[in-house]
Design a protein that fits this description.
This protein has helices at 19-30, 37-45, 49-56, 58-70, 89-97, 108-114, 131-145, 157-167; strands at 8-12, 33-36, 77-80, 99-105, 148-151. It is of the alpha/beta class and 171 residues long. The protein has one domain (3-162): Rossmann fold. Strands 2-3-1-4-5 form a five-stranded parallel β-sheet, with helices on both faces.
Amino acid sequence: MDSETKSNIVLVGMPGVGKSTVGVLLAKQLGRYFLDTDVFIQVVTERNLQQIIDEQGLEEFRNVEESHVLCIEVENAVIATGGSVVYGEKAMAHLKENGVVVHLDLPLEKIKQRVQNLNSRGLVIEKGKTLDDLYRQRQPLYRRYADITIDCTDKNQDQLVAEIIKKLPLS
């Protein structure tokens, strides 16, 4: 399916880049549905992300995330994903099938300023690893799947929404 026929806008990126906040504003601006995959998982499982990670471990959380993303069947939506969705090849293929993937990119130092609650946020990070490690591991994956990359440095949410809309292949 070419980008002109893709109806969803899928936001990916590191924790703290603003996927959910920008996603809500983008959906409102475009008159679309908004879906946050982290919230979707929490509602369906009746547990928060950190509980799933604590009770079942990182690998099982990734499986839960991928299985929930694979059952999403929406059109004309803005979808904000969890930062770890890029570990799931099937999940990303599913999202790309009917969506334009927008990578919200922010330098590591800015992310560190925004993300303070590493132990309670539901972050998919192996014990002993740092946010630096996570950044180095995920950035190539975000770039691999992205149709569009938006540099979020020193931009407010309204500027980001405007830039995303400008770069989208919308009819």
